[in-house]
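Problem: given the chain below (224 residues), write out its structure.
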Amino acid sequence: MPKVLSVEDDELMIQEILSALSESGYEVDVARCGRDGIARVMAFTYDLVTLDRTLPDLDGLTILATMRDAGIDTPVLLVSSMSNVDERVRGLRAGGDDYLTKPFAREEMAARAEVLLRRKTPVRNVETCLQVGELAFDLLKRQASHHGEALDLQPTELKLLEYMMRHPGQVLTRTMIFEGVWGCRFDPGTNLIDVHVGRLRKKVSAAGEDPQIHTVRGSGYILS
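Solution.
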C-alpha cells in the first residue's frame, strides 16, 4: 500500500484529501503545519507528498526546498488556491512534480497521485530495512523482528520503533519523539510517551537480555 504524507492545515481540505486518497488504496499521514511536515518527511519513508503552498508557519516552497536540499526525491504534488500561471511555474521550478489547484475533484487528485507514483523511478538506493543490533524493521512489510522473531506491535508502536531506529545512538527527548511520532506539540504533563516506550521496550527485549531502549535520566531515550 503506497504511503502518502499530506501537509495541509485546512480541516475541510484534509478531509477531501483523505477521502480522495484513502478510497484509492493509499495510507495517508497528515501534518497540519510545515514544521511537522519537515519532521515527518525526514523521519519516515513516503511514496508521495501532497503539499499546501500556504501554511501557517512555513511557505510550502520552503518545505520543498528543504526536502530537495536534503536529497529527498519523493514526488511532491503541490496543492494551492493560487492558480495563476506564474505561481504554478514557480512551484514546479522549485522542485514540485505536479501542481493541483483548489478546489479540486477527488478523482483528479487520485489520478494525479497515481501518475506520479507510476512515473517515479529509483534514482537512488531505497532503504527497505532498518537494522540496529538484533533488531530489524522491514519498511515494505511494516514488520519488526528481534533475533529473527516477528514482534507483535500496534501501529503507534511501529511508528515509534521506526523513528527510534532511524536515530540509533542518539538521545531522543520526549519533545522530539512526540513531534516525530504523534505530530503534535509536546505536553509536559502527559506520560503518553513513557507508557508507549515502556510497552515497546518489553516487546523488543528478549528474555534474559538487556533492553536496547535505554532511559537517559532527565533527557529522554536512546536506542542502541
